[in-house]
Amino acid sequence: MEYFSSLPVFITLFLLNTAASEATCGFKACPDTKQNMINVHLVPHSHDDVGWLKTVDQYYYGSQNKIQHAGVQYILDTVVEELLKDSRRRFIQVETFFFAKWYSEQTETIQRAVKKLVADGRLEFAGGAWSMNDEATVNYQSVIDQFNLGLRYLKDIFGDCGRPSIGWQIDPFGHSREMASIFAQMGYNGEFFARMDYVDKKKRMEEQGMEMIWQSSEYLKNSNIFTGMLYNHYSSPPGFCFDINCQDAPIIDGESYDNNVDKRVSDFIDYVKTMSKSFRSTHIMVPMGDDFQYEDAAVNFKNMDKLIKYVNDRQSGGSQVNVFYSTPSCYLYELHQLQQTWPNKTEDFFPYSSDSHSYWTGYFTSRPTQKRFHRDGNHFFQTVKQLSVLANLTSPQHAEDLENLSQAMGIMQHHDAVTGTEKQAVARDYDRMLYKAIVGAENSARDALRSLTNLTSGQFESCLELNISVCAFTQNSANNVVVTLVSPLAHASTQYVRIPVENNNYIVTDEKGREVPSEVIPVPWQVLAIEHRSNDTQHELVFKATVAKIANFLIRVLPSPKSVDHEYFPIGKAMDETDVLIVENSLVKLTFDTTTGGLKTISMNGLTENIQQSFGIYKGFRGNNGEAKNRSSGAYVFRPNGGIEILSNKADISFYNGTRVKEVHQHVNEWISQVIRLYEGVNRVEFEWLVGPIPTNDEVGKEIITRFSSNISSKGRFYTDSNGREMLERERNQREHFDPDMSEAISGNYYPVTGQISLQDGEKRLTLLNDRAQGGASLMDGELELMLHRRLLSDDAFGVGEALNETQYGTGLIARGKVYLILDVATEKPNHAERLVQHELDQHFWKFFSKSNSVPHVNKDMIPDFTDFPRSVELLSFEQYSKEQILIRVENFNTNGNVVSFNLYPLFTSLSGYQIWETTLDGNMKLIDMKRFKFNQDGSGSIPSSVEYFYAPHSPLSADSTMAASEFVVTLVPMQIRTFIILQKPIS
Questions:
Q1: 171 is catalytic
Q2: Tens-digit pLDDT profile for residues 653-678
C-alpha cells in the first residue's frame, strides 16, 4: 500500500484553512454531548508494545511479520492521513518512543500538520511516557525518569497541548498503588486500565464499581485519583473490530443486497445498553482498537464513521444512544462535570488472576538476570547524570550519550521488558540495547571524572561482571590501580568495597596517603566453577570506604607479605567439639547448626530469634493445551503442581573468619550454593545466592525459592513494597472488597517485591531486602519466601508462545544475587530506616578503575555541598534538564510523622543558579500550574455546588538570585517528593 500518495496537496489546503486559528486542545476540543442519553465516547487507539514477540525495531518497521503482523510506522502514517480528512475524528497515541521515532522521519510539512492536529485536540497523547511501563517489577525512580523523558519530548515539540492528562495503563498485568500516586503527583486527572482479577471485575460489573476513587498514598494529601476499568479489555466491542487484521463484517450500506446496517446498529445499541448497566453515569467509554491496529486506518475510520451516523440516526425514532469520537480525557471531563460520587479504593490490584488457575505472579521473577541488569542500568544512569552535572558536561555528544541511556532505560520499563515476558530473541535485543547505551554513557562518566579529579588521563573503566567476581581491569594485576568510587547519595556513606584480585598482599591508601584496612578473601569455588568464567581472579580485596560523592583509593601490591588476620576452614564434625558455629560482629550474631550446615538463630538490635533458611522447588505441570485446568507455569503465570519440595537442609559449609568480614560458604547441592556474610559495623545479614543451571533431565520445569522461617506470630499478615516506595499490608487469602478464588492458594498469595518484604508481631519485625524484583509471599505464619529463579519447559498459553527456558553456553542459565535480612523491634509503621538502607543498596558506590602510581585528588570546589539535607532526605534525581537547566528531586523517607525542612540556597548558589521553580513530579510542568480533577467518594457527605480541583499541596517554591536565602526553604512531609528546576546564569 502507498501511504500519503495524494496527501501533500491536501495537507497544504488543511494548513491554509486553519493556520489562523488558535490552539483548541484540551477540553475546549471535546465533542458535544446530549442530556438524557447514553453518551458513548468512541476512543480510537492502537496498543503498540515496545517489544514483545518481535524486537522494538521489528515492530516499528514491520519486519518479521511471520511472527506477528505489525508495523507501527504505517499505523502513524495512515492515522494522520485519516485524521486530516475529518475534523470530528480522534485518535490517542500512547507510546512516545514510537511516535518520536516516526515524527523524526517526517517532512516539515507533515510535522506542521501533526502539530495542528495536536493543537486542535484531534490527535491526543495519553500516558505519554517513553513506554507503557509495568507496575509490578519496576522501581519508582525509573518510572519517574521515563515519564520525564516522554513528557519532556512532547512539551518540546507540542507545548502545553502535548501534555497528557490521563494515565493509559491498559496492558500491565496488575496495577500498583504507587503508580497511581505517581500519576497524581504529575497532575494527571485520572487513569484507566484493562486488567483486574476476574472475580473482582465480575463483582464490580454487578455493583457498578468499575470506576472508583483511588487513595494512592497513605501519607500524601491530595493523592486521590479517579481510576477506571475498561469493560471489554481494551478491545473494540465483540463483532465491531473494523481493522484489516480482523474478521468482523464491515458496515454495508446503500443499495447492496448485503446491507447490514439495521442489524449492526441494533447489535451495537444492545451492547451499549448492556455495558451501561455496569457504570454509574450516562457516559461510557468504548475503546476502538487493539494490539498494532490501524495499519490501514481508512478501513477503521470509514466504518466507525458509518457506525456513528447510523446509530445516531436512530435517535429520531426514540433511541437514547448518542455516539461520537472522543478521547479518555474528554470522557473524564464529562464525568467530572456530573459531580456524583464513586466507590473508594485504598490498596492495589495485585495479584492479577484471569481465571481460577491463572495467577499472573510468575513474571514477578521471570528472567532474574535481566531484572538485575535493569537495576544496574538505573544505578549507572543516576551515577552518570550526577557526574555530568558536577562536571558541567553539556556538549552535543555528551547529551546524546546520556539521552541514549535514558531512552534505553525507558524502553526497559515496558511491560514486556523488565517483566521478562518477551520472547528470548527480544530479551537478547533488550540486553544488547541497554549494554550499548551503558558503554556509550561511560564516555561521559570518563570525561566527567577526568575533569573532577586531577587524573586527567585516567581510564575510569567500569566492570559489569562484579556479581561473579570478574573485572577485566584487575584480572592480570591490581598493582597501582586507582578505584574511584562515586556515590549517587546525598549524604556521606560508609560501605564495604569488593574488588576481584589475584591472591597477593595488598595495601589500600586514601587520598591523604593513609592506609585503609583491607583483607583478601577467597571467591567461593562454586563461582569459580561457572563455565566460561575467567579464573584469573580467585579472590576479592575488601576494604571499607566513606564517600561523599567522589573518593579515590589506590591499590598496590606489597613487596613482602603482611601478617594474616583471618582464617578459612571447612566445618565438619571431626573438627568441632560442639554442634554449633557462632559467627558474629559487633552488631549481629549468627548461630549455625554444624550437623546440618544451616542457620539456626540470629541476634541483632537486642533481639534473638530462631530463623532457619531453606531452599525449595515448586515443580510445574508437564504440559499445557491452553485450557485453564491444564495451565502450566510460564513467563506470566506461576502455577505449581502441588506443594513445595524443600531441599535437604544438609549443607557443606566453610567458614571465613576475617577481621572486617566473616563469611559462611554453603554448598546446598550441585546447582545451589550461598554465602552468608557479616561486615563489621553493618547491622544486617547478607545472603548471596547462586542458583543454576536448574536441572530439567526429568522433563519438569522448576521454580526455586528461598524461605526464612521464624517463630514470629504474624497472624497471616505481611508487608510488601509498592515499586520501592510505600509498604502495603497483605493478608493471606484475602483481598480488599472481594473474596478471591483461591483454587491456586500458593501463587494466589504471591506479591511483587521490588525492594522489601517483611512480617512482624507485637515484639519483632523480620525484613528481607532484595537486589532485583522478585515474587514473594508468607504462606505460613513467621515465614517469608522469595522466588529466585525459574526454568520452565512449557508455555502458559498467554501469548509469548515459547517456554521460559533460558540457557547460556549450552546449558541452563545461572543467576546470582543478594538478599539482606534485618531483625528489629516491631513498629506500627514500617521503619523509614529500612527505606534508607534499600536506597543505599540500590545506589551503592559505582566503581571506576584506572592505572596510576599515586592517589588522585578530587576537585572539591566542583562538588556541591548537600550537608544541609536532613538525614531522612535523599537525592532522588540530580541531572541536566537542558543546557542551562538542572533538575533536582528530593525525597523524605520518613514514615513516622516527622516533617523536615532545609534550605536549598547553598546548593542553588553553588550551581550558579539564576532562578529556581518547583514542578510536578515529572519535572515538565510548573507546580503552580497544576490543576487536576477532584472527585467525591461515596459517603463523603454533601456534594459541592460546583466542580472541584486539586491544586499544589503546598506553596510552590519560586525564587531567584536576588532574593534572600529564607525564600529557598524546602519543607517535606513524610514520604514526600519535591522536584525543582534551577536555571543557571548564562556563562560569560
A1: yes
A2: 999 999 999 999 999 999 999 999 99
